[in-house]
Automatic annotation (TrEMBL):
<keyword id="KW-0418">Kinase</keyword>
<feature type="region of interest" description="Disordered">
    <location>
        <begin position="24"/>
        <end position="45"/>
    </location>
</feature>
<dbReference type="GO" id="GO:0004708">
    <property type="term" value="F:MAP kinase kinase activity"/>
</dbReference>
<dbReference type="InterPro" id="IPR017441">
    <property type="entry name" value="Protein_kinase_ATP_BS"/>
</dbReference>
<keyword id="KW-0547">Nucleotide-binding</keyword>
<dbReference type="GO" id="GO:0004674">
    <property type="term" value="F:protein serine/threonine kinase activity"/>
</dbReference>
<feature type="binding site">
    <location>
        <position position="78"/>
    </location>
    <ligand>
        <name>ATP</name>
    </ligand>
</feature>
<keyword id="KW-0808">Transferase</keyword>
<feature type="domain" description="Protein kinase">
    <location>
        <begin position="49"/>
        <end position="309"/>
    </location>
</feature>
<dbReference type="InterPro" id="IPR000719">
    <property type="entry name" value="Prot_kinase_dom"/>
</dbReference>
<dbReference type="GO" id="GO:0051707">
    <property type="term" value="P:response to other organism"/>
</dbReference>
<dbReference type="Pfam" id="PF00069">
    <property type="entry name" value="Pkinase"/>
</dbReference>
<dbReference type="InterPro" id="IPR008271">
    <property type="entry name" value="Ser/Thr_kinase_AS"/>
</dbReference>
<protein>
    <recommendedName>
        <fullName>mitogen-activated protein kinase kinase</fullName>
        <ecNumber>2.7.12.2</ecNumber>
    </recommendedName>
</protein>
<dbReference type="InterPro" id="IPR011009">
    <property type="entry name" value="Kinase-like_dom_sf"/>
</dbReference>
<dbReference type="GO" id="GO:0005524">
    <property type="term" value="F:ATP binding"/>
</dbReference>
<keyword id="KW-0067">ATP-binding</keyword>
Amino acid sequence: MALVRERRLTLTLDLPAADQVSDRRRLLPPLHPPQVTSSSSASSASSDFDKICVLGHGNGGTVYKVRHRRTLALFALKLPSPSAHSSDLRRELDLHLRASPHPSILPLISPIPTPAGDHALLLELMDLGSLDSLLRRHGPLPEPALASISRRLLLGLAHLHSLQIVHRDIKPANILVNSAGDVKIADFGAGRFLRRSLDTCLSYIGTCAYMSPERFQPPAHGYDGYAGDVWSLGLTVLELRLGRFPLLGEGERADWAALVCAICLGDGSPAAMDGYDASEELKSFVGRCLERDAAKRWTVTELLSHPFVARSDSDECDRVFRELVRTES
C-alpha cells in the first residue's frame, strides 16, 4: 500500500453523525445521484475529506482511504482518472446503484459531484483490503474458508446476473474483506448490462489473466458474459487454494502471449491441483467453473447446489474464515 500525505478534498456530501455510521441502513445509496451544480461542487469546510493513503487502482480511477473531517468517519473514495470517459463513469455508477444493497456487493454510499463535472464514488471501507493482499500475507487458504468465500461470492454473482449485470473482472484483487469476516465484490468499472446482444461484452476490458477462453476465441453464437464470470470465479478460488496464479508455472513471465496460450490451450482443470491438499469436492467445483466450453460451464445457480458450497457445516466454514481474518486484524 503506497502511503501519501494527507490532502484535503473539496468534495461535498452530508454524512450521518459519527454514531450512525455503523448503521448500514443509513448508508444506502440514494435512488438518484445528486445533480452537478455550481453549489454542489463548491468547497465546504464542514464536509471535506482528507486523503490518508492509496488503497488501489481500479478500472478508470484510483481508490483512496479517506477521513470525513467533520465526523472522522473512514471511507473508500474512488476518484476518476483524467482519461476516464464520462459514459464509462456513468455506467459504473448505474451498475452500483442497481446492484446495491446486497451483503456480497460493496455498498456505494453516495456519488459525489466533482468540480470537473464528473463524480467520485464514496464506498464502504473494507479494513482488511482484498483477497489478493490476504493471500500474500497468509498464504494458501484452507478449504473451509474457501467454501465460505465461494458461497458468498456465488450469492453476489447470482444477484448481479439476476439483474442482467456481468462483472467481467472477478479476481482476488477485486474481492474485499473486513475484520468482521464479510466478503464483497468490488470495482464495477469493467461491468456491463446485458439487455440485448451478448456481443456487447467482447472487448478486452478487465484483466486478461482472468478472462475465459471465449473472450479470446468467441464462438459463432457470441460471448456469454455470465459464463465468463464463472470462469473468473473458478480461477480465483483455485489461486486462493494454491497460493499462486495457477495457469502459469513458477517464475513464468505473465506476458500477453503466455497468458493467451495458458488460457486457451493450457490445463486450467483440477489437474493443476495435483500435489496439493485438495478434496475431491473442491476439485470438482473448480472443474465445473473452468470448463472450457462455456455452454457446459455451470451457472452460479447450479454451483450454489454443488457439494463444496452446499454443505451441512457451512456455519463452521464461516467460523473458520472469521478466525482467519481475525488473525489479520
